[in-house]
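Hi F.,

I've been meaning to write this up properly since the lab meeting, where we talked about keeping a consistent format for the predictions we share between groups. The idea is simple: the sequence comes first, exactly as it goes in, then the C-alpha cells exactly as they come out, then a line or two of notes. No screenshots and no reformatting. I'm using this chain as the first example so we have something concrete to point to.
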Amino acid sequence: MYMSTERARRHAGRRGQAALEAMMMMAFMLLLVFGLMHVTMFIVTRYMVNYAAFAAARAAEVGNDPEDAAEAVLANINWWAGQNDQMPVEVYQENRDGWSGYTVETRVPFGLPIYEYVEPEGMLISGFAPVSIQSNAPSGGDND
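Output, unedited:
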C-alpha cells in the first residue's frame, strides 16, 4: 500500500502539466484556425470585388447601370452589415495605366482587432476592370 501512495504523490504534478500543455496548444491551434478563416474571407472578398469590377465594366459596355451590376455581385457576400444592411460599394470610371475602366471599392471589417493602422470603417479593397464602350453595341452583347 505504501508503493501506491508514493506513486500517486509522484504522478500528481504531471497531470497538471499535461493540462497546461494541452491548453497552450489549444490556444495556438485556435489562433491558427481563426487566422486561416480570416485570410480565406479576405481572399474571397478580393476575388468578388474583382468580379464586381468586371460586371460593372460589362454592364457599362452594353448600356446598363454599372453600379447596379457591382452591387448585385457584392450582395452575395455581406460580411459588413452597415447602414441598410448592405456593404458600402463605390463604383467609378477612371483611367489607370492608359486603360479606361471601372473601379469598384468596398470596405470590409477584417483585421480590426489585430491591425493597428486600419481605419474604423475597415480595410479598403479595390478592383479594376478595363472597358471599351462602343456606341453601337447591342444590349445582349455578342449574342444578338
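Notes:
The two ends are 94 Å apart (CA to CA).
DSSP finds two helices and three strands in the chain.

If this format works for you, I'll send the rest the same way.

G.
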